[in-house]
Amino acid sequence: MKMSRYFLHTLREAPSDAEAAGHQLLLRSGSIDQLMAGVYTYLPLGWRVKRKVEQAVREEMDRAGGIELHMPALQPLDIWEQSGRADSMGSVLFRLRDQRERAMALGPTHEEVVTSLFASHARSYRDLPMTLYQIQTKFRDEARPRGGLVRVREFTMKDAYSFDMDDAGLDVSYDAMFVAYRRIFDRCGVPTIAVEADSGAIGGKDSREFMFLTEIGEDVIVRCDRCDYAANTEKADFRRVPAPIKVPLPTEEVATPGTSTIEALAALLGVPASKTAKAVLYMATDPHDASAPAQPVFVVVRGEMQVNEIKVRNHLHGVELRPMTDVEARAYGIVPGYTSPIGIDARVRVIADRAVAETPNLVAGANRDGMHLRNVNHGRDWSAAEGDVIDCALAEVGYGCPRCDGTLGAARGIEMGHVFRLGRIYSEAFNVTVLDEAGKQRVPIMGCYGIGVDRIIAAAVEQHHDERGIIWPATIAPFDVHLVGLGLGRDAALAADAEALYAELEAAGLDVLFDDRDESPGVKFNDADLIGLPLRVTVSSRNQTAGVVEVQRRDAGEAEKIARADVVAHLVAAHRASIGTLLGR
RNA sequence: CGGGGUGUAGCUCAGCUUGGUAGAGCGCGUCGUUCGGGACGACGAGGCCCACAGUUCAAAUCUGUGCACCCCGACCA
Q1: CA–C1' span, A24 to B21, in Å?
Q2: CA of A522 to C1' of B32 (A)
Q3: Which of A33, A94, A252, A484 has its CA 20 to 30 A from that of A304?
Q4: Residue range A10-20: average pLDDT?
Q5: Structural domain that includes position A442
């Protein structure tokens, strides 16, 4: 491609809307353009990157046995009601009506479509196992798009769905996807780690997220410093330190006027926060039944810990939680600021984290203004209901690893992909049955697997750039070679040779961006650095005289002078080597 | 949805406090000089100052109401 004829306009300064380096560089390099919050145009340069990423994903999915298809983004709302997610997806689902007022949705994901599709086509165990995938535009009405391509409302996802007869088959399908994901991210130059994850509104269990670790990540993960345990904090467990064996002491009241926070309480009584019990009050509502009254929930964790609301919600089967108001609390006889699990109104469901239940002689509220109780013990003075002592505290840096005696550290990350064993939630909802070898109807078990294509691009730039611009991994670079012609307008012979080299490189199978513009060397070099193609070739009168051209790798090293006659072979070899490294060959 | 911030030229911003009819740098066009790391000169194009409603002789500027975008939080297959 000749730059003089290309639709490409670099920016010297980044638009002020962009904060992350990767977002700024994608904008400055003329790769993307924002249309509105969370909606971007892929400009020609960015579009080439996107197609390369898609192709990398496609090849690896095919290699793993996936079969590509393409499902509609526009979907009837019926299927969302059939699965129950019309409610549970809530406001994230883009809804619309056609001219006959039929309710529809723009697909935020495709479990419903693929499962109803599979139901009408699959008949026999001979059709299984089957993994179907697509690369599709998804729509999610995100409350807060952010970070350029990181969280957007219209985006491209590769989503795959596996159908198997039994758990053992699902394991095979799942493992194949897991391996393919590793290869995809490696190939695109995006380092990821697989972490245990909450499966969220999609349902299912046993899910793993592939996280790209970065300061700008919106998820927090914890990792063990000794073993390979890693988990999203939404899901993470930690080792509760066994309490030293202590005899429960008699409770005693202590006056604590004006002490309604754990910090103030710990300071006033001279005890660590870990010797206190923290009460957090919620109202829980059922997203599937808006008419049902909100239920009061009282979560107790140790004073130094935070409630993991995701775990509480999952424990309560997907309810929505909101903080209880003081007015509501008083209606249940609760004194806000001095809340006590002791003698709580029977209508209030008490859920306790294991750590608080196992720690003796804690300071807790007395449910009287200005009063706390010392030496409160779970089991003697108060109790969560049967089955309501659970892991529901947030894992934090410095806590013990749940798997070994290591310590947890924390990092931020962006979710690049997610794989999980779905189970039969959807296949049952859509009445998928196939006949097994004995002629009996069986419901297949499903897995689902997603990758954010746009996020791969965002992460690749975030990971590979310097102060001058992008350093594209060779596998996803928009072009392979940046051919820079200096002073072509003043030297007809040079211009002719640059044209010839351009043609030779293209003929050799390289994608070339040829800067044939009438611009000064500084402008051209700066644009080349900004755009970040892996290889830069400079032709100039100076080099021409010596019979050489100059080759510069974007990722490292000094420029090399290469004999004009050898340059095509040299670049082909350099390109192959870079691709080979990323493919792990 | 709560909190904060910002809307003036394609981009980055000044002007707003103290109302008087629009500015800079970069970018863009033409011409000339330059030509290996964002050159220089001359001339030029380009703005419904986010929108609407007030106040005023007069509003980019003051007031109100919206809207958009960004950040933090809530939310998030």
Answers
A1: 37
A2: 21
A3: A252
A4: 92
A5: 16-190+423-461
